Amino acid sequence: MTTIVQGVLAERRHQLILRALRSGGPAAVTDLSEQLGVSPATVRRDLVKLEEEGLLTRVHGGAVVDEGDQPFAEVAEVRVPEKDAIAVQAASMIQDGESVLLDIGTTAYRLARQLHGRRITVITSNLVVYEELADDEDIELVLLGGMVRREYRSLVGFLTEDNLRQLHADWLFLGTSGVRPGGQVMDTTVVEVPVKRAMIRAGERVVLLADRAKFPGTGMAKVCGPEELDVVVTDAPVDAATRSALEEAGVRVVVA
């Protein structure tokens, strides 16, 4: 009985912590401790648990909830060496003459930079990928239609999904906001999810590009389960629970 009560109390604290962060922005451990009437040590344990579940991000002395996507320009400056390592590994999988579908996001953009001079076809809804490859005459470049998300430099909506239904690619390189311990691929923005799912249907082989911050990362909307992936390329060893779930689904994990 005591264990059940403790579990209920912890769940209630977690709800109150998330509510406080969503309504008031970043908060210090000491402030949360006073609001909840528990010790700072208890709050720290709660924050660790919530971060493991991808529901918040711990920062020095406290925590913050990530609400939605950051603008592309901001994300593009984060963890560049790690993304480049992933991009180099991913580019090595592609053979000349193949077709490649590139998702939105900054890691897909870093991959595009590795593809110059390759005799391949690149299909994308990522406007930064398009701009990167537009002048490369070796690459056949297909830009999907759709509504422009200016801040995140992507195309979304039913036009994008209709375009994808008419296409097939040898490879899909998929981005993500987070990967749960069960291997589920998540995204922070609901409007992007139908496009990602349409990309998965259009791709012969699906490769997830995910740096260490994406385990578990963030995201409220499920894109797909591990059974829909073929490969995960990351820059660091994946935690045991997630790796086990991926391998049980037949997914190959590649550390760049």
Automatic annotation (TrEMBL):
<dbReference type="InterPro" id="IPR036388">
    <property type="entry name" value="WH-like_DNA-bd_sf"/>
</dbReference>
<dbReference type="Pfam" id="PF00455">
    <property type="entry name" value="DeoRC"/>
</dbReference>
<dbReference type="InterPro" id="IPR018356">
    <property type="entry name" value="Tscrpt_reg_HTH_DeoR_CS"/>
</dbReference>
<keyword id="KW-0238">DNA-binding</keyword>
<dbReference type="InterPro" id="IPR050313">
    <property type="entry name" value="Carb_Metab_HTH_regulators"/>
</dbReference>
<keyword id="KW-0804">Transcription</keyword>
<dbReference type="GO" id="GO:0003677">
    <property type="term" value="F:DNA binding"/>
</dbReference>
<protein>
    <submittedName>
        <fullName>DeoR/GlpR family DNA-binding transcription regulator</fullName>
    </submittedName>
</protein>
<dbReference type="InterPro" id="IPR014036">
    <property type="entry name" value="DeoR-like_C"/>
</dbReference>
<dbReference type="InterPro" id="IPR000524">
    <property type="entry name" value="Tscrpt_reg_HTH_GntR"/>
</dbReference>
<dbReference type="InterPro" id="IPR011991">
    <property type="entry name" value="ArsR-like_HTH"/>
</dbReference>
<feature type="domain" description="HTH deoR-type">
    <location>
        <begin position="10"/>
        <end position="65"/>
    </location>
</feature>
<dbReference type="InterPro" id="IPR001034">
    <property type="entry name" value="DeoR_HTH"/>
</dbReference>
<dbReference type="InterPro" id="IPR036390">
    <property type="entry name" value="WH_DNA-bd_sf"/>
</dbReference>
<dbReference type="Pfam" id="PF08220">
    <property type="entry name" value="HTH_DeoR"/>
</dbReference>
<dbReference type="InterPro" id="IPR037171">
    <property type="entry name" value="NagB/RpiA_transferase-like"/>
</dbReference>
<keyword id="KW-0805">Transcription regulation</keyword>
